[in-house]
């Protein structure tokens, strides 16, 4: 897979913020999914004592949720740690990983935020715009916004609201389990995003896309740590 949009990554903080604001105007908040056969999960793990990172993409069969392909990239951190600009640290190696995929996903779930972001342009939105592919942000924690607890049944969600705008859904993937934070990345509506995350979470709080990507990058990262 090759990105549709190319832009420089070696930029300063203000240039990155300006780019986010510009690209955020292109985010589509309506469903643009075709028949979904394959769903991708992405994650990045950092080395505790160096500037190394491991970026991974896993492709799951959308029906069985079995892993059909995975790609791991080892790289070094190029962009500083700045809240709200994580995509500039994590996307360059993830883009490299997507270029190596043999299986094309129709939907990508990111362990992070979509439009539930101060500039409405978190990592999921950034990735979705780059490849013009439907993406969902699925975070374990809230970045910003207020909400009321959703109902206890599986699939229930309440709106996540910031400055009067609905920026995501607080989703209960299983009864009596802490909710997770779902937001539009690109090319998908919030109800559809929540329905997909529920479908992708048959056994655990987090979707299988996130769990499998997390296990992949942490395994490789641990192997790197033990070999150093």
TrEMBL record:
Coiled coil: none
Alphabetical GO biological process terms: DNA repair
Classification via Pfam families: Endonuclease_5
InterPro entries in the record: Endonuclease-V (IPR007581)
Cofactor annotation: Mg(2+)
Family: Belongs to the endonuclease V family.
Name of this protein: Endonuclease V
Provenance organism: Brevibacillus formosus
């Amino acid at each position: 897979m090759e990105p549709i949009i190319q832009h420089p990554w070696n930029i300063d903080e203000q240039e990155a913020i300006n780019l986010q604001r510009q690209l955020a105007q292109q985010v589509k908040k309506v469903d643009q999914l075709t028949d979904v056969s394959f769903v991708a999960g992405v994650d990045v793990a950092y080395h505790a004592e160096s500037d190394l990172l491991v970026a991974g993409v896993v492709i799951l069969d959308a029906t069985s949720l079995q892993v059909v392909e995975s790609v791991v990239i080892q790289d070094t951190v190029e962009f500083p740690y700045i809240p709200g600009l994580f995509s500039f640290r994590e996307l360059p190696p993830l883009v490299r990983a997507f270029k190596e995929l043999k299986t094309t996903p129709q939907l990508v779930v990111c362990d992070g935020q979509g439009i539930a972001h101060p500039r409405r342009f978190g990592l999921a939105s950034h990735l979705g715009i780059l490849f013009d592919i439907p993406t969902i942000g699925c975070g374990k924690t809230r970045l910003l916004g207020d909400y009321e607890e959703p109902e206890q049944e599986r699939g229930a969600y309440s709106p996540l609201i910031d400055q009067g705008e609905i920026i995501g859904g607080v989703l209960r993937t299983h009864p009596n389990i802490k909710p997770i934070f779902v937001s539009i990345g690109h090319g998908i509506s919030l109800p559809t995003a929540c329905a997909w995350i529920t479908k992708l979470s048959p056994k655990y709080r987090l979707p299988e896309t996130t769990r499998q990507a997390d296990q992949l990058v942490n395994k490789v990262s641990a192997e790197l740590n033990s070999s150093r």
